[in-house]
Amino acid sequence: MALRERRAGNPAAPVRPPARRAVFGTWRRKLVAGVVIAGAVGFLLAEGLSNATVYFKTADQAVADRASLGTRPFRIEGTVLDDVRHAGSTTWFSIYANGVTVRVVDTDQPPQLFKPGIPVVLEGHWQGSVYESDLIMVKHTANYVEAHPNRLTPQAPPGTTP
To answer: What is the pLDDT of residue 111?
Structure first.
C-alpha cells in the first residue's frame, strides 16, 4: 500500500531502499572464479616444476623417448666421439652415453673447448633420427667436476677411447 500511495503522490509514505547489488557478483561467481584461478595456478606450478626438474636427458633416455619428444626442444647429454666434421658453420658429430650413440648436427660455431672425448650438453630437437643442436655447452671448470665427480664422466663405446 505504501508504494501505491507514493505513486499516487503521497510524499510521506515510506519507500523501500533499492536492492543492493553485490560489488563482485554473487557468491557462486566468486566460487567459480576462485576455482578457475586455483586451477590455473596449479597447472602453471605443475608445468614449471616438471620442466625444471629435468635439466637434460642422457643420449639413451632421449633415444628411448624420441617418439614422445617429437620435434619439441630439449637438452641432451653425452660424450663427443671422434667423428667430428666441420663444413662452414655446420658441425657433424656423435655423442655417446650408456651404450647409445646419437648423431648430431650443429648449425652454429662450437665453443673453443669442444673436442672429441669431452662431455657436452646440447640444446635442440629431433629431426628424424638426427639431433639438431642449436647450442653446445661444454662443462669444463674444475669446480664443477669437484662438486659433481660422477655426473659428466666421459664415456665411449667399448674398444674406443673418449
So the answer is: 85
Contact 75, 55 (CB under 8 A): yes
- Banded model confidence at residue 30, pLDDT cuts 50, 70, 90: confident
- CATH class of domain segment(s) 57-147: mainly beta
pLDDT in tens, 33-81: 899 999 999 888 877 766 555 578 889 999 998 898 888 899 999 999 9
Q: Which residues of 106-136 are buried (b: 16+ CB within 10 A; e: fewer)?
A: beeebeeebebeebbbbebebeeeebbbeeb
Strand partners, 93: 104
Angle, alpha carbons 21-23-27 (nearest 5°)? 85
Q: Please answer whether residues 56 and 75 qualify as being in contact, where contact means their C-beta atoms are separated by less than 8 angstroms.
A: yes
Phi/psi region, residue 22 (left: phi>0; alpha: psi -120 to 50; beta: rest), is beta
28, 117, 136, 155, 162 from 82: Cα distances, Å? 66, 7, 16, 12, 8
In the predicted structure, residue 144 carries a pLDDT above the cut 70: no
